[in-house]
Each structure stands twice: as structure tokens, then as C-alpha cells.
Amino acid sequence: MSDTLFLSKDGLVRLLEAVKASEVYAAVRRERGPEYCHLQEAPEAEVALREPRPSSSPKAFLQPAKERVAVYTNEGFDVEASRPVCEDRALVGLRACDLAAIAYLDKVFREGDFKDPFYEARRENELLVSVDCVAVHENCFCTAVGGRPFAESGFDLNITPLESGYLVEVGTERGREVVDRVADAAAEPTDEQLAERNAARQKSIGQVEKQTRGLRVTDTIQELLLAKQGTDELSQMAARCVECAACTFICPTCHCFYLYDQVGGAENFERMRTWDSCILGGYSRMAGPAGAKPTPRPSLRSRFANRLLHKYAFSPQQYGMLGCTGCGRCIEACCGEIDIREVLRELSGDTSG
Amino acid sequence: MTQAVEANPYAPQVARLSRVIDETPTIKTFCFDLEQPLEFRAGQFVQLGVPGLGEAPFTPSSSPLEPGHLEVTVLRTGGVTERLHRMAEGDVCTLRGPYGKGYPVEKLEGKDVVVVGGGVGLAPLRALIYVLLSMTDRLNKVVIKNGARESAELLFRRQYDDWAAHDKVSFEMTIDAPEPGWAGHVGVVTTVLENLPNEVNVPNAYAFSCGPEIMLRFVTFALLEKGFQPEQIYLSMNRRMSCGIGKCGRCNIGPYYLCKDGPDMCYAQIKDYPNVF
Questions:
Q1: Which residues belong to CATH 3.40.50.80 in chain B?
Q2: Chain-centre distance for alpha carbon A73
């Protein structure tokens, strides 16, 4: 069997049913647009394969907004209760930008001197099923940050919607096992079907390129950001920011968290972590009187600038990747109507837009 | 540290206080005799906490050469430190670490080493001083400068004479606000750096400083003025290091996470990034 197969619409329904995992998260159709959800909690939901990317990212399934990371008592820490517990999982309907974000989070949490055992446990037994973007959200700009509206790697299975069915590309052995369960429904793709995929992809690239109007995040933008880091020009961008932190919570790569301890039961204590945001004033506040400057970035503008710098200048140095996938979700989420594309355009001195 | 703790970097071990030393009206040293020695390099830090309340990052002030006996010197300044200061021998603390890189002691062979402390900033530097004193035969000179607001806040005062008694070691202290009868130097710590070019061979020297951010800033400027290059200046940068392992994101200066790449940073690495001081 080749690496790319054709499945009819019914065949694909069977394929998705053949995704056997204790927990399945999927992009599903909702009245107000596609969104990721826990499929077991919405068994009637239909997987969204032909819609633009959901308005939220699958980040919460990889790094929950709040979780317990250790239990301890006055006698020591409870090894059993502190161990990550995770069943096999599947993420279905991921867009290419979401796969890029997972690759970024993998670098943060699975590489370096210390690994995050909770993230690691979730990713270890996880099936990733991605889908080409045949529809593009108006805020998408993946091509400006080196992405494409379809995935070429990083998936176990990738689905391309066609007029009369679907092409399914097998990326890994784990993906192959799923396809093998519905082998009778799969056929070798025809040249016409492969050509249709190619045309659909080119069309999506064209659509994204059209709306990004030539915006390209290159090394030059990184240099510009670094050169302008302390200037008013960069700070002006923050003028409309209202410090709601929505951009960081909606962002698929933002991963900052806060550790805190609390009393668990009568005899034990719990160490928890929650999402945190570098935009918020208390984010890096330290103990000490105001005169001792306990907040290294006291102004909102400096925090806004730091976030931009992290995405486009520091991340490439830290992880070899931009911290932005071009999903554009922060654009919808922003209460101050800050459009990151306009910010980047303005910074680079491009006034054509 | 046990294998299990290593596997979960967020899980603390618990340690009983073996002694609490009153150092100054605002500073105490918390001592632990650990069953499993906590091996650390001078400048690496630990997360010390109060069960159920939370933890905060501190660089041990004890000698890395005696890893079974850990001392952490703490200024009372916030929620966790307030509760720590109310603890006594036998009470239980949480402990994780060590984290960070530590001071580049390997670079110091044959060098002149300048150590500049301010207030509780002398605490992490004491771990370095212990290491330096153990290797004076391989160093050219050690010059220690220490400043505090007032004489009551001079940390580890009982040890100054011992340090100065070592060959190749000089020690000078200063306070900002002298009480009647104070015969020593008066002024901020930079005022005892004025004569530095006559005390050390600047091109062959490294300087290490720890103290309040405002002090680090002026110490840096003073050192640069005396001819030190940014590459020769190491600063203990303090940020809200929460996870300690380079994941939680909050302690960055530019692309560096202080918990992972510091907390002592070479000034040359960080000087061009915003919000350093």
C-alpha cells in the first residue's frame, strides 16, 4: 500500500471511527464555527475537515490551563500521586499551523536538560491527524512565517479533502496501523486525485498570500526588532493593548506558566501550575519594596515589546524556530484590535499595506 | 536527590531545619544537614519553600565543598521569606535544585578576582568566596568589597577577619549610614571601587557582583569606567525564577532564561537587551 490513499466520504467516516484512543480531541463543527473539543463529550459532533482553522488552538489539550504537578507532605513528596497519568490520545483535524505549534512546544518541554514529564506523557502516546486547509480564515498568515496551509511532516496521518472524497497520507507506522483497520475502504489514488490535491493546495497558498500582501517575517524583521527594542517606535504598538492577555492564552505556542503551592487535604500539599501571561503586570513581579524595582518590566509597553521580541527574535535563538505559526488567532482575540500583521509590517517599514 | 525527584522536576524534597542563624535584623541563615548531599556549584540556586505556601529562588551561601550541609541566607522581604523567618530548628521546608550554571570558576586560574557584594547580595558570593579561598594557590589575587546600609546590616561580619587573613586576599567594607563611633569607610559600595586599578591588574581580572539591581547598575558602570570589559563582569541577575528549569518563561533577559543560563550572567551577554537594570 502506498503512502497516500484515497477514501470515499463514507470511508473517511470509518477511518475516523477507527481512531481508537481513550481520549480523542478533534476540531468539530459548531454553529459559531469550528472548534477543538473533547470528542467523548460531544459524540454527535462532526469533525470539521473543510472549514478554516478553529478559533482556539489545541494547546489546552497538551498543556492544560491548570494542573497538579506534585503532591507532598511534611515527610516527603508522594511519588505515586506526583506521577503523570495519561492514557493514549488522539488529536484529529489539526491544521498545519497547529502541528507547527506542537513542534515548538516539543522543543520547549521535551528538549534540554530537564524534560517536562506531564507534557511528555501526553505526547508519548498521541496520534496526530492533520488536515489541509481548503478554507482559509481571513486572519491566517502562515506563509509569512515560513508555513503553508497544509502539512508536509509532523503528522501520523494527513487528510486532504477533495471534491469526491479524501486523500490520506500516512506519515508514521502509528498512522499506518489506523489505515490498515479500514484497508478495504482505501484505494490507490488516481493521478487526477493527486493533481486535484496539488491544485487545492496551490489555491490555499494563493489565498493566504493574497491576504498577507507580501508580508514576510525574515531575518531582517528580527534584526529590526532587536534594533528597535528600546525605542518609542516599538512601544507605540502597545498603545492599544489593554493588558487582557487574550493573545497569550489563545496563542498556540505561548507556554508560560506559574507554579504555586496550596494545601491539598488534611495532611498534604499540592503544587499546581496555571497558564500565565508575560503581558500581565504581576507576571514577573518579585518580592520587595517598590524602590527596589521588583518588576523588571514595569510598563505595559515593555512587556508588549518583550512578547514580540520573544516570538520573532528570541525564539529562533532559543529553539531554532519562530514562536509564531501565523495562525492569526491573536488578531481575533485582541480586545484592542491589534493586528500582529500590521505591527510586523509597520516595524519593517513596509507602508504598502 | 532521589531518582523519582529527578523524574519530576517540579516535585520538592522536604528538609528539616537543623539551625537558624540570626545574621542581621532583616537577614537569617537557614541551615540543613541533608541525608542526601545537595551537590552544587557556587552561584547555582535552589528553590526553598514553605510547605503549602510556595517557594522562592535562593543561591546557597554555604560552601559547595561541603554539600551535606546547606545554608541559605534570606532577607525578609515578601510572603515566603516572611514565613521562613518565623521558622525554627526542626521545622520542615521544601527544597528543589540546584539549578542554573553557577560562576565560571574554571576561568579564574591565574586571575585577579574582584567580588563586590551589597546587602544580602553577599550571601551567594560567600559560596564563591569559600571556593576562591580553597584555590588561592591558583589565583593571583582576591579583592572583596562589601557594602550595606548600616553597620547592623553588614552580613557575615564575624568572618571578615578570617577572609582578610588569607594570603592574596583583601577585604574592604563600607556603609551608607554610619552610627556614632563608626570608624570605617562611609559611602555606597562604588566608593570603595575607586582605587581598584591600583589593587588589581584590570586586564587580568574578573569581577563578580551581587546586590540590589540599582547597585549592580552602578557597580557595572564603575567597573567599566575603571577599564573592565563587559566580558570581565559577572552580575547576579534576579528575576522571578519559578520553574527553575527553563520552561515557565518568566525570568528572561533577551533570549536567556536566568534560571537556566544564569542567574549570574556575563554583562557582555545581556548588555544589549532591554530591561537589564
A1: 105-236
A2: 36
Boundaries of CATH 2.40.30.10 in chain B?
3-98
The model's pLDDT over A280-300, given as tens digits with 9 standing for 90+, comes to 998 888 887 766 667 888 888
Contact criterion met (CB below 8 Å) for B61 and B236: no
Tell me the sheet residues that pair with B47.
Answer: B57, B96
B215's CB contacts (< 8 A; 6+ apart) are B118, B119, B121, B147, B188, B189, B209
* Residues contacting B17, CB < 8 A, separation 6+: B30, B31, B32, B87, B88, B89, B90, B91, B92, B93
> Which residue is it, cell 517606535?
A233
Q: Give Cα separations from B234 to B105, B191, B264 (angstroms).
A: 11, 19, 6
Q: Is A157 left (phi over 0), alpha (psi -120 to 50) or beta?
A: beta
| C-alpha cell of residue B71 | 545554608
Phi, psi of A206 (to 5 degrees): -60, -40
Nearest CB among A84, A226, A262 relative to B52 is that of: A262
* Pairwise CA distance, residues A86 & B174, whole Å: 57
Using CA coordinates, name the residue in chain B closest to A286. B240
Q: CB atoms < 10 A from the CB of B140, how many?
A: 16
Residue in chain A closest to B50 (alpha carbons) equals: A261
Residue B11 buriedness (CB in 10 A; 0-12 / 13-18 / 19+): buried
Give how far B40 is from chain A: nearest CA, Å.
16
**CATH number for region B105-236:** 3.40.50.80
Contacts of A273 in chain B (CB under 8 A): 10, 248
User: pLDDT digit string (tens) for A306-330?
Assistant: 999 999 999 999 999 999 999 999 9
For the entire predicted model, the pTM comes to 0.94
Class of domain B3-98: mainly beta
Nine-digit cell at A301? 509597553
Q: What are phi and psi of B51, to 5 degrees?
A: -50, 130
User: Pick from B92, B243, B95: which is nearest to A272 by CA?
Assistant: B243
